[in-house]
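S1.2 Input.
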Amino acid sequence: MRKARPTLRSGILLLALCALSITSCDRGDHPARIGSPAPQFTLADGAQNVDLARLRGHIVVLHFWASWCAPCVVEMPSLMALQRRLPQVTVLAISQDEDPAAYRAFLLDNHVDFLTLRDPSARVPHLYGTVKLPETYIIDSRGILRRKFVSAQDWTSPEIIDYLSKL
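S1.3 Output.
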């Protein structure tokens, strides 16, 4: 009887699965930073300034987006509705738009009425480990990361409103 030997193909498959499991963990339901202090940042885009530390005491919905991102555009009205419905929550959106004119035009055309800044270098999203848009982090009033949402959401869903109301 011949003894089975691992083939090069099965070895590569095993290595690929190991690499995938290591790199994909932070995009799941329980990213590594949940329960830890949110990475601090100060961001100025010429029009506005934000220091995350100054938002301590508020629940922050930190949203990473861009005007060229179709799912980001689709969820924008529900983020505005969330801000109106829960004024005690601060929606802070950081756009990766490189073109300042296109960014400003989007905000005006869509009547975006919550705090948003432009970070074309994507420095802040990188602090949080964001690689795809949209991604959103919930930061509690003590500055602790509580939840991460990957992809577009309905921010007025009863589950999200209930969750944010209970923080």
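S1.4 Remarks. Helices lie at 8-24, 70-85, 100-109, 123-128, 158-166.
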